[in-house]
Amino acid sequence: xxxxxxxxxxxxxxxxxxxxxxxxxxxxxxxxxxxxxxxxxxxxxxxxxxxxxxxxxxxxxxxxxxxxxxxxxxxxxxxxxxxxxxxxxxxxxxxxxxxxxxxxxxxxxxxxxxxxxxxxxxxxxxxxxxxxxxxxxxxxxxxxxxxxxxxxxxxxxxxxxxxxxxxxxxxxxxxxxxxxxxxxxxxxxxxxxxxxxxxxxxxxxxxxxxxxxxxxxxxxxxxxxxxxxxxxxxxxxxxxxxxxxxxxxxxxxxxxxxxxxxxxxxxxxxxxxxxxxxxxxxxxxxxxxxxxxxxxxxxxxxxxxxxxxxxxxxxxxxxxxxxxxxxxxxxxxxxxxxxxxxxxxxxxxxxxxxxxxxxxxxxxxxxxxxxxxxxxxxxxxxxxxxxxxxxxxxxxxxxxxxxxxxxxxxxxxxxxxxxxxxxxxxxxxxxxxxxxxxxxxxxxxxxxxxxxxxxxxxxxxxxxxxxxxxxxxxxxxxxxxxxxxxxxxxxxxxxxxxxxxxxxxxxxxxxxxxxxxxxxxxxxxxxxx
Length: 529
Known about the structure:
Blueprint: H1 2-35, H2 38-41, H3 43-46, H4 49-67, H5 69-81, H6 86-110, H7 120-125, H8 130-137, E1 140-143, E2 146-149, H9 152-170, H10 187-224, H11 226-238, H12 245-254, E3 260-263, E4 266-269, H13 271-280, H14 287-294, H15 302-319, H16 325-342, H17 346-349, H18 357-376, H19 388-396, H20 405-428, H21 449-459, E5 466-471, E6 475-480, H22 488-492, E7 498-501, E8 506-510, H23 515-526
Antiparallel strand pairs: 1-2, 3-4, 5-6, 6-8, 7-8
Helix pairs in contact: 1-4, 1-5, 1-12, 1-19, 4-13, 5-6, 5-9, 6-9, 6-10, 9-10, 10-11, 11-12, 11-18, 13-14, 15-16, 15-20, 18-20, 21-23
């Protein structure tokens, strides 16, 4: 069970690799869409050939990234779960993804289903009405030139997981001397080529059942309307300490649970896919469909990230003891600015979610309420973060149809709600937020920047106790041999906002946006490539 938990966390971390690229591409795409909107830039700019050529180029690059997301997730899943030889796992996953879809395509062809026989026109000739024909045709897609089921990101994840199982069992295999060249890491892609097409055949036979099940869940959430948005927003916040919120997010963003739309005869599944398609193909997706998708995206986060949590940071600062206020001020200011601008919240959230379940649950409920109210107000702001960048690029620059001003209105309501509720609970329940720790829990002096990396390694039990180091947006993720040697108090002196023991061998240290630099320095000190 503990090993399973460790793998789940590694999988959640792996999902962040393609998402970080897509988030940045989405911002560029949002700016490009705004620059091509005559209501924003004027008719004269819209008629300038060179700027429009550049903007069109940006759209094509972003569109290519979005179209190949399943492949990216296949590679990322394999990298995240590979025990060693991660480049080999990534290479094998790319091969596995392709040959798996070849297996799917061959099975479809054996059933008489090809790109030619599944067009809406061909299906109507077989007796289907127009609507049914278009819906069935949308179940298939050309992926890297291969006719296959439209499995979206889930297909990539399946290919990546199957490949990494093969990789972890085969990358150390030694073959007889005569064929030893094909052993070890070279053996992995060979086995992948043999196994994944057969997996594709099996997947093609059961995919209709899987697809119907996912669609049923999506319909259930869709019928729940704003209550589904509330449930999603609250659940995502509640899962923050476990790190499993990444998996919930990707499920909504890239499966039918987040919505389904048809563009140019192809089905788009997932809230983020639909929103990005509306940017890359202006006018192809109805605004009502986009609004249904964005109820799971950035618009529900903006009032919390830009207004609520900074107000909570002010409350924590004001509640600190006078002697601690200078220290707490620096901590809260950094966290508030990060949350406001980028929507990265863990540096602030980890200041209170472990010391007060009441504050934690209140924050989750208010987050879910924000998602629900933004859906009720018919906002249309996409992307994934929820900070000022998303508000400006996808809200304000998106024009009046996004109804972006309601997020600011709710944010202004959330300012006093968060401030006064946090102040009341902290003081009434004597919550030990930063600056209010009890005498035996006083924070140790923070080490200098020069000593930080050495202290981190020491706090993790020394170099010999560390088997792997990685990071996501805000957390240093470390796999250790013996959890008993990890000293949380030592790690907290290195500027960490919190320490989480997520399994028997996995520990996460929350540093915020600077974690990428810290991870690189720790790897360099350990000699890890």
